[in-house]
Amino acid sequence: MTTFVHRALYGRRANITKEDAAQIAKPATTFPSPNFKENIKYLAYGSNLSAETFLGRRGIKPLSQVNVRVPSLTLSFDLAAVPYKEPRFANVAPRENGDQELVGVVYEVTPKDYSTILLTEGGYNVIDVACIPLTPVEGIDSFLSKTLIVPTSRTRTKHDGLPSLRYLTLIMNGAKEHELPEYYQEYLASTGYYNASTWRQRLGTIFVTTSMLPLVIFLFALRNVVSDKNGRAPEWVTVLQQYVFQGIWMAYDTIWKRLYGDGESDRHEVDRESLLKLGQATAGSETDTLLVEVEESAASDYAADRRNAWTSTQL
């Protein structure tokens, strides 16, 4: 069953385990590489902080990497996915007064690997942002890096929402792997996470998992079948996925929320050590693999109309 689900979601992409990814996480050279100017700089701030995701599932081997802060952006969990199960994914937004500035990792990658990132990320908009290394780099005070964003106009900002324990732990593990500043790791932990704690919410989780996820698996399997050799799917597949996810949240707002209760913002908070311990028990399953693909698809749905794409000048 595991092989079938993974093949449906990822086609023939290699399945690298968390342990394998950790072994190959070390970049090829120190930052910056000799070809720094020619290579692509890509800023990761969400699940791509984790070697399990970036190297394991996306199969990207960075040439070099550096921890940075980004004064113009802040982390935002406003990208909606699946109520009761995976309410929100990470995004970034322009930083306003009082917001915590974004901290992340810039991976230096080849143009080919950068193309792979864009394909597997499913359709975020690309912007250029100024990054400041957290550790001094000779001759480089700051530099421009590309990162991915879903504009606020296409996110669920009018409704409070939280990431799942699984997803928040994935980001926190990545922050720990890269030894991001302690204050930022504490900031991530303070986000809290959504958990279906009442019997109605748990019933909603069962309903959504059994009724919606098989449909989502089918859509991803279909996408793999009809995609070209570069991983590009026909526009009608993206449109179909868009309508499915829009339908899920329309059903939640009009029916499921009344039946099952809150499926996106029931906040739970524990100390960081407990959060990491609990989260590790939820990772690595077939559902975990599926939810990674859901994240990519959700971003694609919200960013499908590229005519209104943001640019760095709007930040």
Automatic annotation (TrEMBL):
The keyword DNA repair does not apply. The chain crosses the membrane at residues 203-222. Its EC number is 4.3.2.9. The active site is at E121 (proton acceptor). It is an enzyme of class 4 (lyase). Substrate binds at Y42, L43, A44, Y45, G46, S47, Y167. Keywords: Lyase, Membrane, Transmembrane, Transmembrane helix. GO terms for molecular function: gamma-glutamylcyclotransferase activity. Coiled coil: none annotated. This is gamma-glutamylcyclotransferase. It comes from Orbilia brochopaga.
